[in-house]
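Task: sequence design from structure.
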């Protein structure tokens, strides 16, 4: 790889490279298409998968095919007017309700963290280092993921050397790039120390137990307590989250890694955060993006036979630590 290719690769996100490569393989290998492609073959490909793949997936596949043709110096067949018309037809004939992860409720978060704490204490008494470390890691992952509203890939890219944490005060977390950071300037986030369910305390407990001073924050731990060198993969977090919640006695089938982000957004809204404050804290630049994560608070007053879940009383926390509290 020469220097130019190295910088071109660095300018494309790893997730994007993987998804584009997967899309090209699906077109060529799974479907049997040929590259460079004609607009007619693109139309046949769309028609063949119109009732099998989500509309957003089809759009992503087209973006990958367009990128391949442009990078190889060929005309882009996905820009043909007929392709746009077929996409409109697919959306009309195969409407699908947008799927959203259920927001993680604060009570479930607390139940899971309390279970992890009890299990960690028992593991320490029995000398089960592997179980102890996994409990410490999982508590930190849940609490940082929830209170910072991080995506799964952001959690997996956190590094020890990019985090500053002070017990009873707070923590700053630096990410070299994020989904909305097109210029790769990096973003520094902050999280408070809390009287309970504290992300700072959980992070420091994990670092202390694991002896970490550099590298990925969240990584695999085997049964003997050996740490993996690489960080967890973002795609593994759904299974990990459900495993943690399930062992804590929580029905976790509707939860995904996005449940942490949605859970915080819902909690913040119920506790009086306005949209501007929420967008600034989480890092959303578009109000429509933020609104997708928020369950609206509704009320039918005395006419309702059963309280609507979204209108339940806010789940409040004690004030953050510091400032004499």
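Answer:
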């Amino acid at each position: 790889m020469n220097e130019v290719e190295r910088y071109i690769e660095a300018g494309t996100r790893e997730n994007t490279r993987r998804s584009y490569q997967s899309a090209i393989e699906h077109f060529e290998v799974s479907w049997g298409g040929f590259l460079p492609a004609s607009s007619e073959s693109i139309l046949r490909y769309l028609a063949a998968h119109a009732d099998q793949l989500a509309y957003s997936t089809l759009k992503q596949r087209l973006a990958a095919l367009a990128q391949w043709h442009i990078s190889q110096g060929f005309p882009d067949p996905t820009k043909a007017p007929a392709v746009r018309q077929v996409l409109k037809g697919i959306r009309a004939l195969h409407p699908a309700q947008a799927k959203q992860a259920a927001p993680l409720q604060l009570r479930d978060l607390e139940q899971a963290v309390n279970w992890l704490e009890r299990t960690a204490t028992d593991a320490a008494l029995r000398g089960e280092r592997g179980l102890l470390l996994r409990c410490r890691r999982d508590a930190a992952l849940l609490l940082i993921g929830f209170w910072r509203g991080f995506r799964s890939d952001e959690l997996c890219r956190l590094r020890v050397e990019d985090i500053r944490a002070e017990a009873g005060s707070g923590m700053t977390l630096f990410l070299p790039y994020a989904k909305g950071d097109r210029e790769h300037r990096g973003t520094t986030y902050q999280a408070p120390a809390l009287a309970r369910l504290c992300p700072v305390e959980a992070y420091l407990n994990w670092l202390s137990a694991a002896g970490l001073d550099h590298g990925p924050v969240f990584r695999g731990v085997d049964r003997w307590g050996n740490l993996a060198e690489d960080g967890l993969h973002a795609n593994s977090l759904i299974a990990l989250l459900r495993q943690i919640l399930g062992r804590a006695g929580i029905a976790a089938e509707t939860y995904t890694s996005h449940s942490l982000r949605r859970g915080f957004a819902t909690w913040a809204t119920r506790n009086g955060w306005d949209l501007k404050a929420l967008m600034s804290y989480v890092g959303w630049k578009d109000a429509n993006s933020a609104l997708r994560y928020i369950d609206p608070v509704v009320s039918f007053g005395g006419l309702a036979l059963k309280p609507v879940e979204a209108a339940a009383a806010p789940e409040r926390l004690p004030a953050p630590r510091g400032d004499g509290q």
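Confidence is low (pLDDT under 50) at residues 308-313.
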